[in-house]
Design a protein that fits this description.
Elements (H helix, E strand, L loop, with lengths): L6 H9 L5 H12 L1 H5 L1 E5 L3 E9 L18 E8 L1 E10 H5 L3 H24 L19 E4 L7 H11 L7 E4 L1 H8 L23 E5 L2 E5 L7 E5 L4 E6 L3 E5 L8 E14 L6 E4 L5
Parallel strand pairs: 1-10, 5-13, 6-8
Antiparallel strand pairs: 2-3, 4-12, 6-9, 7-8, 9-13, 10-12, 11-12
Protein backbone atom coordinates (compact mmCIF):
# COMPACT_ATOMS: atom_id res chain seq x y z
CA UNK A 1 0.00 0.00 0.00
CA UNK A 2 1.54 3.34 -1.04
CA UNK A 3 2.24 6.09 1.47
CA UNK A 4 -0.33 8.48 -0.04
CA UNK A 5 -3.22 6.07 0.35
CA UNK A 6 -6.06 7.76 2.23
CA UNK A 7 -6.95 7.08 5.83
CA UNK A 8 -10.25 5.55 4.72
CA UNK A 9 -8.38 3.06 2.57
CA UNK A 10 -5.97 2.38 5.41
CA UNK A 11 -8.88 1.76 7.77
CA UNK A 12 -10.51 -0.57 5.25
CA UNK A 13 -7.26 -2.48 4.94
CA UNK A 14 -7.19 -2.86 8.71
CA UNK A 15 -10.72 -4.31 8.67
CA UNK A 16 -9.77 -6.70 5.89
CA UNK A 17 -6.41 -7.71 7.33
CA UNK A 18 -4.95 -11.08 6.44
CA UNK A 19 -6.04 -12.66 9.72
CA UNK A 20 -9.65 -12.17 8.59
CA UNK A 21 -9.10 -13.69 5.15
CA UNK A 22 -10.09 -17.16 6.38
CA UNK A 23 -13.48 -15.94 7.62
CA UNK A 24 -14.13 -13.40 4.86
CA UNK A 25 -12.98 -15.33 1.80
CA UNK A 26 -11.86 -18.93 2.32
CA UNK A 27 -14.78 -20.25 4.38
CA UNK A 28 -17.49 -18.53 2.26
CA UNK A 29 -15.82 -19.81 -0.92
CA UNK A 30 -15.65 -23.39 0.33
CA UNK A 31 -19.26 -23.14 1.53
CA UNK A 32 -20.51 -21.66 -1.74
CA UNK A 33 -18.51 -23.33 -4.51
CA UNK A 34 -20.10 -26.58 -5.66
CA UNK A 35 -16.56 -27.78 -6.41
CA UNK A 36 -15.78 -27.70 -2.69
CA UNK A 37 -18.93 -29.70 -1.97
CA UNK A 38 -18.05 -32.57 -4.30
CA UNK A 39 -14.26 -32.69 -3.80
CA UNK A 40 -11.96 -32.98 -0.82
CA UNK A 41 -10.68 -29.52 0.14
CA UNK A 42 -7.12 -29.09 1.33
CA UNK A 43 -5.61 -25.91 2.74
CA UNK A 44 -1.85 -25.79 2.50
CA UNK A 45 0.98 -23.32 2.93
CA UNK A 46 3.10 -25.14 0.33
CA UNK A 47 3.76 -23.72 -3.13
CA UNK A 48 2.59 -26.97 -4.72
CA UNK A 49 -0.17 -29.41 -3.88
CA UNK A 50 1.49 -32.76 -3.30
CA UNK A 51 -0.95 -35.66 -3.20
CA UNK A 52 0.22 -39.20 -2.30
CA UNK A 53 -1.22 -41.95 -4.47
CA UNK A 54 -1.27 -45.64 -3.57
CA UNK A 55 -0.13 -47.49 -6.69
CA UNK A 56 -0.35 -50.94 -5.13
CA UNK A 57 -1.67 -52.14 -1.77
CA UNK A 58 0.35 -54.48 0.46
CA UNK A 59 -0.46 -58.11 -0.25
CA UNK A 60 -2.01 -60.17 2.54
CA UNK A 61 -1.65 -63.96 2.37
CA UNK A 62 -3.06 -67.02 4.11
CA UNK A 63 -0.47 -68.48 6.47
CA UNK A 64 -0.32 -71.36 8.92
CA UNK A 65 -0.43 -70.71 12.65
CA UNK A 66 3.01 -69.79 13.92
CA UNK A 67 4.39 -69.31 10.41
CA UNK A 68 6.26 -66.15 9.47
CA UNK A 69 4.06 -63.57 7.72
CA UNK A 70 5.50 -62.77 4.28
CA UNK A 71 6.67 -59.17 3.95
CA UNK A 72 4.98 -56.97 1.40
CA UNK A 73 5.23 -53.25 0.78
CA UNK A 74 2.92 -50.50 -0.33
CA UNK A 75 3.86 -48.85 -3.60
CA UNK A 76 3.36 -45.12 -3.27
CA UNK A 77 3.41 -42.44 -5.93
CA UNK A 78 2.85 -38.72 -5.80
CA UNK A 79 0.96 -36.23 -7.89
CA UNK A 80 2.42 -32.73 -7.80
CA UNK A 81 -0.01 -30.00 -8.83
CA UNK A 82 0.83 -26.35 -9.33
CA UNK A 83 -1.44 -23.61 -8.03
CA UNK A 84 -3.19 -21.08 -10.25
CA UNK A 85 -3.95 -17.54 -9.17
CA UNK A 86 -7.56 -16.38 -8.98
CA UNK A 87 -8.34 -12.76 -8.22
CA UNK A 88 -11.53 -10.85 -7.47
CA UNK A 89 -11.98 -7.08 -7.45
CA UNK A 90 -14.76 -4.97 -5.99
CA UNK A 91 -15.18 -1.22 -5.58
CA UNK A 92 -16.91 0.57 -2.72
CA UNK A 93 -17.62 4.20 -1.95
CA UNK A 94 -15.57 6.11 0.59
CA UNK A 95 -18.70 6.41 2.72
CA UNK A 96 -18.86 2.62 3.02
CA UNK A 97 -15.16 2.48 3.77
CA UNK A 98 -15.70 4.93 6.62
CA UNK A 99 -18.61 2.91 7.97
CA UNK A 100 -17.45 0.49 10.66
CA UNK A 101 -20.74 -1.39 10.75
CA UNK A 102 -19.82 -5.14 10.62
CA UNK A 103 -22.56 -5.72 8.04
CA UNK A 104 -20.60 -3.65 5.52
CA UNK A 105 -17.54 -5.80 6.07
CA UNK A 106 -19.61 -8.95 5.64
CA UNK A 107 -21.13 -7.69 2.39
CA UNK A 108 -17.72 -6.84 0.96
CA UNK A 109 -16.35 -10.25 1.82
CA UNK A 110 -19.49 -12.02 0.59
CA UNK A 111 -19.31 -10.29 -2.77
CA UNK A 112 -15.68 -11.21 -3.32
CA UNK A 113 -16.26 -14.77 -2.10
CA UNK A 114 -19.24 -15.26 -4.43
CA UNK A 115 -17.21 -14.11 -7.42
CA UNK A 116 -14.25 -16.34 -6.57
CA UNK A 117 -16.53 -19.34 -5.92
CA UNK A 118 -18.25 -18.75 -9.27
CA UNK A 119 -14.93 -18.71 -11.09
CA UNK A 120 -13.75 -21.89 -9.34
CA UNK A 121 -16.90 -23.71 -10.43
CA UNK A 122 -16.61 -22.39 -14.00
CA UNK A 123 -13.03 -23.65 -14.18
CA UNK A 124 -13.70 -27.01 -12.51
CA UNK A 125 -16.76 -28.03 -14.52
CA UNK A 126 -15.62 -26.48 -17.79
CA UNK A 127 -12.77 -26.60 -20.29
CA UNK A 128 -9.83 -24.25 -19.86
CA UNK A 129 -7.67 -25.13 -22.84
CA UNK A 130 -8.05 -21.57 -24.12
CA UNK A 131 -6.92 -20.06 -20.81
CA UNK A 132 -3.32 -20.82 -19.89
CA UNK A 133 -3.82 -19.18 -16.50
CA UNK A 134 -6.54 -21.62 -15.38
CA UNK A 135 -6.15 -25.23 -14.19
CA UNK A 136 -7.47 -28.14 -16.22
CA UNK A 137 -11.21 -28.63 -15.77
CA UNK A 138 -13.28 -31.80 -15.96
CA UNK A 139 -13.98 -31.19 -19.65
CA UNK A 140 -10.22 -31.20 -20.30
CA UNK A 141 -9.57 -34.66 -18.88
CA UNK A 142 -8.82 -37.37 -21.43
CA UNK A 143 -9.18 -40.53 -19.36
CA UNK A 144 -12.57 -40.11 -17.70
CA UNK A 145 -15.31 -42.71 -18.19
CA UNK A 146 -18.08 -41.53 -20.52
CA UNK A 147 -21.61 -42.86 -20.66
CA UNK A 148 -24.08 -41.75 -23.32
CA UNK A 149 -27.68 -42.24 -22.26
CA UNK A 150 -30.25 -42.99 -24.95
CA UNK A 151 -33.10 -41.70 -22.82
CA UNK A 152 -33.82 -39.85 -19.60
CA UNK A 153 -37.06 -41.51 -18.62
CA UNK A 154 -35.79 -43.39 -15.58
CA UNK A 155 -32.80 -43.53 -13.22
CA UNK A 156 -30.99 -46.43 -14.90
CA UNK A 157 -28.16 -44.22 -16.13
CA UNK A 158 -27.33 -43.22 -12.54
CA UNK A 159 -27.07 -46.87 -11.56
CA UNK A 160 -24.80 -47.42 -14.56
CA UNK A 161 -22.62 -44.52 -13.47
CA UNK A 162 -22.33 -45.85 -9.93
CA UNK A 163 -21.18 -49.26 -11.11
CA UNK A 164 -18.81 -47.71 -13.64
CA UNK A 165 -17.12 -45.93 -10.72
CA UNK A 166 -17.16 -49.18 -8.72
CA UNK A 167 -14.98 -50.77 -11.41
CA UNK A 168 -12.31 -48.36 -10.17
CA UNK A 169 -13.05 -49.23 -6.51
CA UNK A 170 -14.62 -45.80 -6.16
CA UNK A 171 -17.92 -44.66 -4.69
CA UNK A 172 -19.85 -41.79 -6.24
CA UNK A 173 -20.24 -39.03 -3.65
CA UNK A 174 -22.38 -36.65 -5.71
CA UNK A 175 -24.06 -36.11 -9.03
CA UNK A 176 -23.83 -32.61 -10.51
CA UNK A 177 -25.92 -31.24 -13.36
CA UNK A 178 -27.02 -27.95 -14.86
CA UNK A 179 -30.27 -26.74 -13.20
CA UNK A 180 -32.30 -27.35 -16.37
CA UNK A 181 -31.01 -30.91 -16.62
CA UNK A 182 -31.59 -31.51 -12.91
CA UNK A 183 -35.15 -30.24 -13.28
CA UNK A 184 -35.82 -32.87 -15.96
CA UNK A 185 -34.60 -35.53 -13.53
CA UNK A 186 -36.51 -34.14 -10.55
CA UNK A 187 -39.89 -34.33 -12.31
CA UNK A 188 -39.56 -37.92 -13.48
CA UNK A 189 -42.63 -39.92 -12.38
CA UNK A 190 -42.90 -43.42 -10.97
CA UNK A 191 -45.07 -44.44 -13.91
CA UNK A 192 -47.17 -43.13 -16.76
CA UNK A 193 -50.27 -43.17 -14.57
CA UNK A 194 -48.58 -41.80 -11.43
CA UNK A 195 -48.11 -38.19 -10.38
CA UNK A 196 -45.53 -39.18 -7.77
CA UNK A 197 -41.95 -38.13 -8.46
CA UNK A 198 -39.19 -40.73 -8.52
CA UNK A 199 -37.00 -38.47 -6.42
CA UNK A 200 -37.65 -36.96 -3.02
CA UNK A 201 -36.39 -33.46 -2.30
CA UNK A 202 -33.80 -33.31 0.47
CA UNK A 203 -33.02 -29.70 1.43
CA UNK A 204 -29.76 -29.20 3.26
CA UNK A 205 -29.89 -26.03 5.31
CA UNK A 206 -29.71 -22.97 3.08
CA UNK A 207 -27.98 -24.83 0.26
CA UNK A 208 -30.39 -24.72 -2.65
CA UNK A 209 -27.86 -26.63 -4.78
CA UNK A 210 -29.25 -29.95 -3.55
CA UNK A 211 -32.52 -30.66 -5.31
CA UNK A 212 -32.89 -34.39 -4.75
CA UNK A 213 -31.25 -37.60 -3.65
CA UNK A 214 -30.67 -40.53 -5.98
CA UNK A 215 -30.16 -43.76 -4.04
CA UNK A 216 -28.90 -41.66 -1.15
CA UNK A 217 -26.48 -39.68 -3.35
CA UNK A 218 -27.03 -35.94 -3.58
CA UNK A 219 -27.91 -34.39 -6.93
CA UNK A 220 -26.35 -30.93 -6.93
CA UNK A 221 -26.73 -28.19 -9.49
CA UNK A 222 -24.35 -25.69 -11.02
CA UNK A 223 -24.79 -23.39 -13.98
CA UNK A 224 -21.12 -24.10 -14.74
CA UNK A 225 -22.05 -27.60 -15.92
CA UNK A 226 -22.90 -27.98 -19.61
CA UNK A 227 -26.60 -28.60 -20.19
CA UNK A 228 -27.22 -32.27 -20.91
CA UNK A 229 -24.17 -33.36 -18.89
CA UNK A 230 -24.28 -35.07 -15.51
CA UNK A 231 -21.05 -35.60 -13.57
CA UNK A 232 -20.76 -38.52 -11.16
CA UNK A 233 -17.87 -37.63 -8.88
CA UNK A 234 -16.16 -39.82 -6.26
CA UNK A 235 -15.14 -37.18 -3.72
CA UNK A 236 -12.14 -39.18 -2.51
CA UNK A 237 -10.59 -39.07 -6.00
CA UNK A 238 -10.89 -35.32 -6.60
CA UNK A 239 -9.14 -32.60 -4.59
CA UNK A 240 -9.57 -28.83 -4.42
CA UNK A 241 -6.36 -27.35 -3.08
CA UNK A 242 -6.29 -23.80 -1.68
CA UNK A 243 -3.13 -21.98 -0.64
CA UNK A 244 -3.39 -20.43 2.79
CA UNK A 245 -1.83 -17.15 1.68
CA UNK A 246 -5.12 -15.57 0.63
CA UNK A 247 -4.32 -11.90 0.14
CA UNK A 248 -6.55 -8.83 0.47
CA UNK A 249 -5.37 -5.40 -0.69
CA UNK A 250 -7.07 -2.00 -0.57
CA UNK A 251 -6.30 1.11 -2.64
CA UNK A 252 -8.00 4.39 -3.57
CA UNK A 253 -5.49 5.32 -6.27
CA UNK A 254 -7.11 3.84 -9.38
CA UNK A 255 -10.53 5.31 -8.56
CA UNK A 256 -9.19 8.58 -7.16
CA UNK A 257 -11.34 10.74 -9.47
CA UNK A 258 -14.60 9.07 -8.34
CA UNK A 259 -13.65 8.98 -4.64
CA UNK A 260 -14.04 5.21 -4.45
CA UNK A 261 -11.90 2.48 -2.96
CA UNK A 262 -10.91 -0.79 -4.64
CA UNK A 263 -10.64 -4.01 -2.66
CA UNK A 264 -8.87 -6.94 -4.27
CA UNK A 265 -8.70 -10.52 -3.07
CA UNK A 266 -6.36 -13.13 -4.52
CA UNK A 267 -6.50 -16.86 -3.92
CA UNK A 268 -4.40 -19.66 -5.38
CA UNK A 269 -6.23 -22.89 -6.14
CA UNK A 270 -5.46 -26.24 -7.71
CA UNK A 271 -7.52 -29.21 -8.91
CA UNK A 272 -6.23 -32.72 -8.31
CA UNK A 273 -7.63 -35.75 -10.17
CA UNK A 274 -6.28 -38.89 -8.54
CA UNK A 275 -8.03 -41.40 -10.80
CA UNK A 276 -9.59 -39.94 -13.92
CA UNK A 277 -11.29 -43.19 -14.88
CA UNK A 278 -13.38 -43.11 -11.71
CA UNK A 279 -14.91 -39.78 -12.76
CA UNK A 280 -18.01 -40.48 -14.79
CA UNK A 281 -19.42 -38.13 -17.42
CA UNK A 282 -23.01 -38.91 -18.38
CA UNK A 283 -24.46 -37.30 -21.49
CA UNK A 284 -28.26 -37.30 -21.84
CA UNK A 285 -30.30 -36.49 -24.95
CA UNK A 286 -31.73 -33.03 -25.37
CA UNK A 287 -35.24 -32.40 -24.09
CA UNK A 288 -37.93 -32.80 -26.69
Amino acid sequence: MTTNTSQAAADALTWLSSDKALDLIVRPVTNTAVTAQVARTRLTAAHQLRVPIVLADPQAQWVAEGEEVPLSSTQLGEQVIGFNKLAGLTVITRELANDTDPSVLNEIGAGLARDIARQIDNAFFGSNTADANAPAGLEDLENITEIEATTLEDLDVFTEARFAAAQHDATVGAFVAHPTTAQRIAVLKEGSTSARNLLASVPEGDNSGIVASIDGIALRTSTAVTEGTIWAIPNDRVILGIREDVNIQVSDQVFFSSDRIAIRATMRAAFGYLDQGSIIKVTVPAAE
